[in-house]
Write a structure and sequence with these properties.
Keywords: Signal. The protein contains four helices and 15 strands. By secondary structure, the chain is of the alpha+beta class. The protein has two domains: 41-141; 147-253, Thrombin, subunit H (Beta Barrel). A hairpin with a 6-residue loop joins strand 11 (204-206) and strand 12 (213-215).
């Protein structure tokens, strides 16, 4: 009896590992993908918004600028009541692919820092870095988190259409749970929680009998969830895709089914 009980106890952890584990719900995966993305990505409506932000002047003397725990000194309007700041550098400037209007600028994520003490130069402690911090890098307050209840609401909005203009992580093909930049924003009527259909333009082929160029019909290829809006730009998350999506694929307001 004791031997049987000992065998059972020894094999219990292995047996539990073989049992099917609960599958995470799609909305949980969606929230995780959104929060991870927003930690490292930010859009500003104008390059001036970044140029006027507080900036890093220097690090502690004799140390490599940018190491975790490193003290850095900054100038600008930094509030003790706002302890956490993102460190950013000017990245890609977005223009509308059709009108060429300036839509905003991408702030490249460099890391994060925590307020330590105020003074003529404010002291901060670097907490996370993606690359070396440099003098002149800008400090921005943390973005508010996404409210899941907002995304779960099915809003009614006017018809909006536009294009995917960027994939912030730098790949060429877009799949499920990838985030993309859209050339429409709040002024165009997009709101957080809105669903969009992605349409791939039909390829142009040559008619084998007439020799004339013929364009194949456009086809719906996926669904986007708008999860962060700015004045002229938005971020969307791919919820479904029947084929790889790409920059310059068109999107339009989808019929809400949530």
């Amino acid at each position: 009896m004791r031997k049987s009980l000992l065998v059972l106890l020894l094999w219990a952890p292995f047996a539990m590992a073989l049992l099917p584990q609960p599958v995470q719900r799609q909305d949980q995966l969606t929230q995780q993908a959104i929060q991870r993305f927003l930690l490292h990505n930010r859009i500003l409506d104008s390059p001036r918004d970044l140029d006027n932000a507080p900036y890093i002047v220097a690090a502690e003397a004799g140390r490599v600028l940018g190491a975790n725990g490193e003290r850095v000194y900054a100038r600008g309007d930094l509030e003790p009541s706002q302890p956490n700041y993102g460190i950013f550098r000017r990245g890609k400037v977005y223009t509308d692919p059709v009108t060429k209007e300036l839509l905003g600028v991408n702030a490249d994520d460099i890391g994060t820092a925590r307020f330590v003490v105020a003074g003529d130069l404010t002291t901060l402690a670097v907490q996370r870095v993606t690359q070396e911090v440099r003098p002149g890098d800008r400090l921005l307050r943390a973005q508010p988190p996404i409210d899941p209840t907002t995304l779960a609401t099915a809003p009614t909005v006017p018809f909006v259409e536009g294009h995917i203009i960027d994939i912030p992580k730098g790949v060429t093909q877009i799949g499920v749970l990838d985030a993309v930049t859209l050339n429409k924003g709040r002024r165009d009527g997009l709101i957080e929680g809105q669903l969009l259909s992605v349409i791939k333009t039909g390829a142009t082929v040559r008619d084998s009998l007439t020799g004339a160029p013929t364009q194949l019909p456009d086809e719906r290829a996926g669904t986007l969830l708008v999860f962060r809006t700015y004045e002229k730009l938005s971020y969307g998350l791919v919820l479904s895709a029947s084929r790889p999506l790409a920059v310059m694929d068109r999107f339009e307001t989808a019929h809400q089914t949530q």
